[in-house]
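Changelog excerpt

This revision adds worked examples to the README so contributors can see how folded entries look when concatenated. The first example is reproduced verbatim below.
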Amino acid sequence: MFVKDLTIITVKSIREIDAVMNQGNRLRKVGQTAMNDTSSRSHSLFTIYIETAETVSGKQRFKAGKLNLVDLAGSERQSKT
């Protein structure tokens, strides 16, 4: 799979994650719709890999996790009444 303009950034704190996510949101294209003045016109994908290591009783233990955050462009729908 190829993702145009994909960026991988290594961070070491929640503050750094927040800064990167804010930067990504600023780069998104938005436009006005009947339901939303700032509707997203581009998809947004954030994948956060979390890794920790600790030493317990002389043995090193590792934990890892992955969190995918997805926002699809123009996904709002107007309900029919």
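The second example, added in the same revision:
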Amino acid sequence: MSDETIQVRNTASGDLMDVLVLRKRTECIEVVIGKGQHSVTCELTPTRTGAVYAGSVMGRELVYERSREQVKAEVEQAEPRIRPSRPSRPR
């Protein structure tokens, strides 16, 4: 299984950067910024409107420009749920 990376925008400079995804859920996306000994984790949570995910690390604001619905679709595609079995028939 390959590691997933996403692009986030640093709002101060406007630069895009690739970050490694630790966990991706609809409520929160946990990412790692940097590599090796100096790496830092950051939690991106949906904004009030649900239009983007935002978080801050070391005083810098990071934005993942995907809506809550888009992330939900990505999560469901990556981890399809097993359909529930049919209820057993009475005998």
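Reviewer comment on example two: The chain has one domain: 5-78. The beta strands are 5-10, 16-24, 29-33, 40-46, 53-57, 60-64.
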